[in-house]
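Field reference: "sequence" (input) and "structure" (output). Example, Chemosensory protein A 86a:
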Amino acid sequence: MLKYTVLVLLIGIPKLLLQAQMSYEAIFVSVTSEENSKPFDLSNLRLIGRERILNGTFEILEDLDDEHFQISVEIYTNPARDGNYKLLPMSVPRQGVCTFFKKYGFYFRDCIKNGINTDLFLNTTSCLFPKGHYYLKNVTINVQNWPKIMQRGLCRHIAFFYKNNVPMGSYNLTSSIEDRAPNFNLRPL
Ligand SMILES: *[C@@H]1O[C@H](CO)[C@@H](O)[C@H](O)[C@H]1NC(C)=O
Ligand SMILES: *[C@@H]1O[C@H](CO)[C@@H](O)[C@H](O)[C@H]1NC(C)=O
Ligand SMILES: *[C@@H]1O[C@H](CO)[C@@H](O)[C@H](O)[C@H]1NC(C)=O
Ligand SMILES: *[C@@H]1O[C@H](CO)[C@@H](O)[C@H](O)[C@H]1NC(C)=O
């Protein structure tokens, strides 16, 4: 009887709703960089309030194109939250910044929308990150396109930048992966 009820319940839930709900959320913990890192100056970004919203201004210190600038990314996890980070086998190998953005840009666009959260506009055709000062406001992490299953605890993405394959600097983005508060506030679809 119980089995049958569960089945009916599952069938009764529209597919869209199941896809839309992640069992976890990710909250900013810190954004740091090694000293004198280029090509970004992130020193005027702040995390604000209980919700740790990313806000402020940042600078792109020179025009970044796919030919001369490369990025690689490593991802670490720290379930115990004790600072003992373990490298995950899902790194992004070194590649042109624009090639990277074309492949993974949706992760950023899920969180940062031009005209809403930033005035930086990235043209994926010409694919140049123009030098300049930009704002970020009200940015939170949207995990809709992240893996379905994530280990709870601290998660750290490290982005390494290179100019003509010479290291320029690195940036750590640390987030906290937590159970998402259940949301029974079902909206009509
Ligand atoms: C970035 O993370 C790595 C790996 O956890 C750590 O060794 C390094 O000290 C961090 N750097 C900064 C600037 O936070
Ligand atoms: C958020 O950043 C914007 C743009 O730099 C700034 O105008 C605003 O004062 C910041 N808000 C807070 C609460 O710091
Ligand atoms: C994007 O760049 C291409 C090539 O330089 C250009 O033709 C196009 O107008 C640009 N699009 C926008 C929206 O700026
Ligand atoms: C900030 O973003 C959230 C959703 O990410 C939205 O609900 C809220 O209205 C925004 N606040 C401001 C001041 O733009």
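The beta strands are 24-33, 40-41, 45-48, 53-60, 69-78, 86-87, 92-96, 132-139, 153-163, 166-179.
Residues 4-18 have pLDDT under 50 and may be disordered.
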